Q: What sequence folds into this?
């Protein structure tokens, strides 16, 4: 029987071998150590390749979309309150007035862009498999997804924690 000791299916052995030998590409980009050694301290780096991966990796885009959904549901009633909520979640501090204003301007730019191209909003929101609430406006969610993506890719969020 396949489940008995010593007669495991071959695919499990291949899976285990792959997971121990090959590091997930995004982990390698962010300097994760290989799984065959133990490290007490990871290096802090900041490279253009990490920025590219952070802004375009489908898994991280999906995380930004789910974070945007949370911002819209729990962040407050106004964009300023929502920016404050999101910034605190990412950096554990309130945004400075300049940071808040820049994020608000960026949000407005994204809202205008997605209002002109609703198909672009739908294409962006289609990334990933996490459930998307039907009650949220796609253009609004896509705009907030871009803001969440920026916040999740701040140097302060990634390396200075």
A:
């Amino acid at each position: 029987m396949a489940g008995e000791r010593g007669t495991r299916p071959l695919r499990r052995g291949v899976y285990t071998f792959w997971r121990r030998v090959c590091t997930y590409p995004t982990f390698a980009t962010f300097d994760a150590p290989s799984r065959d050694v133990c490290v007490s301290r990871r290096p802090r780096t900041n490279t253009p390749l990490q920025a590219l991966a952070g802004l375009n990796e489908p898994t991280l885009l999906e995380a930004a979309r789910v974070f945007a959904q949370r911002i819209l549901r729990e962040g407050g009633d106004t964009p300023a309150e929502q920016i404050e909520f999101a910034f605190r979640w990412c950096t554990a501090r309130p945004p400075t007035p300049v940071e808040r204003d820049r994020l608000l301007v960026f949000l407005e730019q994204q809202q205008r862009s997605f209002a002109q191209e609703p198909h672009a909003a739908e294409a962006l929101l289609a990334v990933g498999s996490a459930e998307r609430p039907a009650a949220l406006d796609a253009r609004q969610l896509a705009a907030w997804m871009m803001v969440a993506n920026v916040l999740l890719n701040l140097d302060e969020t990634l390396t200075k924690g």
